Amino acid sequence: MNANQDISSSKIRSLDYLEQLESEAIHIFREVAGQFERPSLLFSGGKDSITLVHLALKAFRPGKFPFPLVHIDTGHNFKEALDFRDELVEQIGEKLIVRKVADTIKKKHLTEPKGKFASRNALQTYTLLDTIEEFNFDCCIGGARRDEEKARAKERIFSIRDEFGQWNPKLQRPELWNIYNGKINKGENVRVFPISNWTELDVWNYIRKEKIQLPSIYFSHEREVIEHEGQLIAVSEFIQIESTDKVTKKKVRYRTVGDMTCTAAVESTAATLEEVVTEIIATKTSERGETRIDDKVSEAAMEDRKKNGYF
Amino acid sequence: MDILRFITAGSVDDGKSTLIGRLLYDSKSIMIDQLEAIEKQTKNKEEGEIDLALLTDGLRAEREQGITIDVAYKYFTTPKRKFIIADAPGHIQYTRNMITGASNANLAIILIDARNGVIEQTRRHSIIASLLGIKHIVVAINKMDLVNYSQNIYNNIVIDYAEVAKTLELQNVTYIPISALNGDNIVEKSKNLLWYEGECLLSFLESVEVQSDIDLHHARFPVQYVIRPQTDDLHDYRGYAGKIISGIYKKGDSIIIQPTGIETIISKIEIGGVEVAEAFAPQSVVLHLEDDIDISRGDLIVKKDEQLQVSQEFEVLLCWMDTKPLQIGSKYFLQHNSKNVRSVIKNIEYKLDVNTLTKEFNFEKIGLNDVIKATIKTASPLAFDSYKCLQANGGAILIDETSLVTVGACMIQ
Ligand SMILES: Nc1nc2c(ncn2[C@@H]2O[C@H](COP(=O)(O)OP(=O)(O)OP(=O)(O)O)[C@@H](O)[C@H]2O)c(=O)[nH]1
Ligand SMILES: [Mg+2]
Predict the structure, then answer these.
(1) DSSP readout, A206-257?
(2) A154 interfaces chain B, CB cutoff of 8 Å
(3) Which domains does chain A have, with CATH numbers?
(4) Which residues of chain A are modeled with pLDDT < 50?
(5) Which of A227, A308, B136, B181 has its CA 20 to 30 Å from the CA of residue B173?
(6) Is residue B57 within 8 Å of B124, Cβ to Cβ?
(7) Could you tell me if A241 lies within 8 Å of chain B, comparing CB atoms?
(8) What whole-number distance in Å separates Cα of residue A249 and Cα of residue A20?
(9) Block mean pLDDT (10 aa), chain B, length 413
(10) What are the residue ranges of helices labelled H in B66-150?
(11) Which domains are seen in chain B, by residue range?
(12) Strand-by-strand arrangement of the B173-177 sheet
């Protein structure tokens, strides 16, 4: 058959933006499978890593994933997210490795952070680097997106980390076309970000389109919260409630799911994906700005953490 | 809705980052908290003004020095399109980062400072845009506010650049006078530039046609990974996973595996586990073949009766991206889609003089950012197309054998 004739037929052969992003992500997953000996997928339990799992299913089924899921567990999780994690792993039948920050703190005599919202977020890096060493991972896939934060906006899709897990933003490898150079020397590892080019809204639209299941805390529910500098923090055993704090019950949902100590809730009645997407479209604040307490510390907070080996 | 990927290019301080900040700001794509953050950081400006370049200059060193070092990716959406922007550095030292951003762009906006006109770095970035085959070029003549919005100055720059465009055989060049700082001709037509009859930048970006950038005529499928579950119920399942980089594949198509030359037929096509009758670029799929043959990562599945080159020696245009000079006779890994082979640079025909755009046949060494024409020999045969004819199958990178860093970008001739 003549190819040209075929093309001039009325059939439209083009992908919309979500299909393009999906195909790009699947391609990246398969590059990981083709290039690395011991890759892993960092699974936090949030919507971005759940989206990654969905994309990995598309990339590798009916085969098994060529990597385990790895959860660096701060011990400050939402119970709903942990339950969801275990159900998901059970349902897809893939391997899950959990390493606990609490164990690293004990083993390495690290100092527990103090304060009202004492967050183990920064300590995760130690556990992550230990876990990479323990399993000799040469690659860690992560769900970071470039629209999240301005240091992330600078990172390559294949991001090389040195022996100490450090990112060197001033000396990144060129990355051309869809050709990814995953070659590394011993001790180094590569962080790979398949959904680099997705925005928060793209992820939500994709979740809606693909009917991906999420932990219940992404939808409106009633919760006891305190208000802190304009943000709503869930009451939990992990934060210190003072006598001046006013505990109220509010209808909230989460826009991101991190630790209970550093993730803020959004007041909302959105109970379905449809309603959540509508709210995200209308929002005037960024995902991190609205929901993360930890990034307000300094202008270069993320850049510094990444330089130290953070995700 | 589709995606337009574009890059901003041009010399240091021509206003690339400011332009992107302006596009995001005027299209209301910046969130309140992000705006507050850059308001706080803005220095040396009058009350109420903000430094729009801070939106993309995300590294500490960039903010301290007021320059862009590496590409920043930014995203925005209008009712017509999703845009992926790569804000490139203008500084010559960081040209390789500009190349990184430019390699995936459908369109390049080349900024020119109206006060300076076409300068060396304008030409350098234009050469790269031309080498990489970027299909659409917008020449944004910026800082018109500093030249009294003079039509004369604009016209002269257009004449100068048209010369560059002609030499480099750039296609689809559009000129727009703008002020990134003041927002003239960015999302709305400017009252200060009434003599300009064309569209404003955003309307142009929203309407430029890019779907035809994808080649649907030549079918190329590099195998990335072989899926073999080897479970009891899927004992005979053997799927070749990869992304169709160009063309269309259908069930029943006769195909040839390159470089081995073995022929067979497509027995099944799957997308995300669902069987389909046909698939096209740039879909990620799994192909099944009628015969059990030895195929692995790096092989290329091509439709029968299609012409492509299979060879161990070929000519390339090469951008050198390492601070260590290139050595004739040195060995490098060459990565071409999913295939990785050892290679050696056998011969250098000429080096391109960036200023005069002429070929130099006598040169001392090949260093960072040099563009050359060279002959490469590979350890095993490569199945490729010329970059000019089929970009998706004509680009390759060179990797240093010891540092393992990406040191060269090759456009196969
Ligand atoms: N008057 C005027 N100044 C401008 C305009 N556009 C940019 N500038 C100024 O030019 C300077 C450099 O702007 P940037 O946007 O940082 O330049 P750049 O091209 O991104 O520079 P590099 O990324 O380092 O190559 C800043 O001080 C801007 O405010 C304009 O249209 N008019
Ligand atoms: Mg800049």
Answers:
(1) HHHHHT----GGGS-EEEEEEEETTEEEE--TTS---TT---EEEEEEESS-
(2) yes
(3) 16-201+300-307 (3.40.50.620), 214-295 (no CATH)
(4) 1-8
(5) B181
(6) no
(7) no
(8) 42
(9) 93 91 85 78 65 80 84 91 92 90 96 96 93 95 97 97 94 95 94 95 94 88 94 87 97 95 96 94 96 93 93 96 91 96 95 86 90 96 96 96 95 96
(10) 95-102, 120-131
(11) 2-213 (3.40.50.300), 220-303 (2.40.30.10), 309-412 (2.40.30.10)
(12) B72-77, B81-87, B2-10, B107-113, B136-142, B173-177
- Half-sphere CA count of B267, side-chain side, radius 13 A: 11
Residue B319 to residues A181, A276, B105, B128, B396, Cα–Cα distance (Å): 17, 47, 17, 8, 11
Backbone angles phi, psi at B46, to 5 degrees: -75, 160
- Chains A & B: contacts with CB separation below 8 Å: 189
For ligand 1, mutation pick of B7, B12, B13 (most atoms within 8 Å of CB): B13
Tokens 């004990």 sit at which residue?
Answer: A106
Candidates A2, A154, A155, A291: best to mutate against B (most CBs of B within 10 A) is: A154
Please say whether the dihedral angle defined by the alpha carbons of residues B393, B399, B404 and B405, taken in this order, is positive or negative. Answer: negative
Q: What is the ipTM of this complex?
A: 0.94
Evaluate the CA torsion angle A257, A263, A265, A266 in order and state its sign.
negative
DSSP codes joined into one string, A66-135? SS-EEEEE-S---HHHHHHHHHHHHHHT--EEEEEHHHHHHHHTPPPP-STT---TTTHHHHHHHHHHHH
Tallying the residues shown for chain B, one arrives at 413
Ordered DSSP codes for A261-273: TTB-EEE----SH
Does A63 sit within 8 Å of B404, measured CB to CB? no
Provide the pLDDT for residue A5: 42
